[in-house]
Amino acid sequence: MGQPNLSLLLVLLSFSTVTVCYPTGAPISACETMMPGHVGIFPQPKPAPYIIKTNSSSVKSGRPIQVQIVGPAYRGILLQTRTFAQTTLFGKWLQPPNNTKILACPKNPVGAITHANTNLKDQSTTYIWMPPDSGSPPVLFFIATVAEAYDKYWLGIQSAILYQYSVETSGVISGSIETSGANEITWATNIFTVTFLQFTKSLLF
């Protein structure tokens, strides 16, 4: 009788470990490292089975962006917006979806979002991020740590790059290159606009 009881106790302890370690969100220490703090558990190798999907590829002040984690259902998450070679958190997360909450990081108390419990989340869970009013760098990206289970998580999942949206009052895009139909590339500046036609089947020497 003693041995079966011991086995049951070990099973219960294992289940407790999975659900008790940060079941209500990532710790404050993860704000910079993005590490979930699962002692003795290392991140899974890349590539992750998740992608970060957004409804926009550009950032414009006052225009929110929808973010979804596409892939298998997950239990834990830490989601932020950064630029290259920095740990600064940009913008703010709006009303968190069910089973998630804002993580009050010291340098930006509304700049990170995490799980509020270990209930399953899926790609229908939509996070809403609002760009900063000013001071946004030229490029940003979303970055996430996603935990499918306590002992199975992926670190440093990045979205595609989001570029700063900038339009001059004249309606001309400043210092940018944009593409339109029929292999036409338009280079627009404040002073002049030059149009180049690309001929893909012939070369002029």
Automatic annotation (TrEMBL):
Q: Pfam families in the record, alphabetically? A: Reeler (PF02014)
Cellular component terms per the entry's GO annotation? membrane
Q: Which UniProt keywords apply?
A: Signal
InterPro entries with a match to the protein in the record = Ferric-chelate_Red/DefProt, Reeler_dom, Reeler_sf
Q: Which domain of life is it from?
A: Eukaryota
Signal sequence segment: 1-21
Q: Enumerate the spans annotated as Reelin domain.
A: 16-179
Record PROSITE patterns: REELIN
PANTHER family hit by this protein: CYTOCHROME B561/FERRIC REDUCTASE TRANSMEMBRANE (PTHR45828), SI:DKEY-251I10.2 (PTHR45828:SF32)
Q: What is this protein called?
A: Defense protein 3
